[in-house]
Amino acid sequence: MPCGGATDEDPGMAFKERVFSGVQPTGNLHLGNYLGALVKFVALQDKYDCIYCVVDLHAITVWQDPAELPKATREVTAAFLACGIDPKKHIVFNQSQVAEHAELAWVFNCIARLGWLNRMTQFKEKAGKDRENASIGLYSYPTLMAADILVYRATHVPVGEDQKQHLELSRDIAQKFNNDFAKSIQAHGYGDAFFPQPEPLIQGPATRVMSLRDGSKKMSKSDASDQSRINLTDDADAIAHKIRRAKTDPEALPSEEKGLDPRPEADNLVGIYAALAETSKADVLREFGGAQFSTFKAALVDLAVTRLGPINAEMKRLVADPVYIDSVLADGAARAQVIAAETMKAVKDIVGFVRR
Ligand code: ATP
Ligand code: MG
Question: What is the pLDDT, as a whole number, of residue 14?
């Protein structure tokens, strides 16, 4: 029995709801990853079947030291678990253990158009001025991301704002595959559409956490300045030091959100506070409107240390046990591969590859 695509009779119910998302093992996880992604990953576990992936194939689109990559992979895994992801109820694994991601990405490289990829802003930012010298992998990063999601025919993808454009591309790829192969999809019994249109889940006050040193740049693992970000591995002193030194302006905090518009650094810190306190920026300003930054930053330090301290401690405990981490990844990879292999069999039939 084919695993079922969208049909005329049952368009809404055809795809099983499933969450997929990934984080690259490219360095220290930071507050942006935590608020933009990990907090959402944890919350979605109650409602959906979730697959959370450490995307090491993505990481090597820029140079990674082979001595550091396994450590970074285990550290991201430890962060997933420390934040509260349950690897037994859900699936946690690293991408390179499931070869179907790369296999489907090749098919998608033949579906996506050069013109689509030429519009991707992440490539432009990461390649910088020396574009001729960027890897082809960095350029085709979004087709691999589409494969990550669609090899599980995932319907919901929690990501930060920076990944919105890539999600839109994933949707375009799914759509074009469904259109190009419509007859074959029908003929093989998958109805009108083989791939779902994955929905981005981007909500809340911290979907784009900005650098603490420059309110116009997003907080990133790959930023050269460690002062630009709060790492999940930072201790209380480091967190306090970085927040106290965070760039601000000399004005007091406004009492309403529109007062944050021309003040990116203030907006960022208020957004971080709101996300950590699980409230809105408006509520934070109701409390701190008129306050000086010294007062607000002291409160933010307390809140950040309270929220991140236990995660930091649990991550330390977990990374000290790489055998356990590797067993989580191996178990997750085996379970992920069952789903991915099923999709690839169908894709091969649909495309017309002769298979065993
Ligand atoms: P890199 O600089 O290597 O790209 P990164 O910090 O952007 O690292 P990723 O692994 O690319 O981290 O992204 C993991 C998840 O974290 C994605 O869902 C991404 O949208 C989200 N994310 C990354 N940076 C931020 C940020 N500053 N604010 C909110 N979400 C973010
Ligand atoms: Mg990134």
Answer: 77
The catalytic residue positions are: 126, 218, 221
**pLDDT tens per residue, range 227-257:** 999 999 999 999 999 999 999 999 999 999 9
Write the DSSP assignment of 33-94 as a string of letters. Answer: HIIIIIHHHHHHTTTSEEEEEE-HHHHTTS---TTTHHHHHHHHHHHHHHHT--TTTSEEEE
Please state the length of the chain. Answer: 356
pLDDT at 8: 44
pLDDT band at 222 (very low <50, low <70, confident <90, very high): confident
d(CA 22, CA 15): 21
Cα dihedral 99→199→264→79 (10° resolution): -40
Residues framing ligand 1 (Cβ under 6 A):
23-24, 26, 32-33, 36-37, 159-160, 162-163, 207-209, 218-222
Indicate the helix (H) or strand (E) that contains 299: helix 293-319
Residue 304: in which H helix or E strand, if any?
Answer: helix 293-319
Instruction: Give the integer Cα–Cα distance in Å for 264 and 322.
Output: 40
d(CA 75, CA 78): 5
Q: Categorize the per-residue pLDDT at 172 as very low, low, confident or very high, splitting at 50, 70 and 90.
A: very high
- Cα 91 to middle of ligand 2, angstroms: 22
Quote the radius of gyration of the chain (alpha carbons, Å).
21
d(CA 134, CA 118): 14
Helix 100-109 vs helix 164-180: angle between axes, to the nearest 10 degrees? 70
pLDDT digits 0-9 by tens, 147-157:
999 999 999 99
d(CA 101, CA 104): 5
Residue type, 47: K
pTM strictly above 0.85: yes
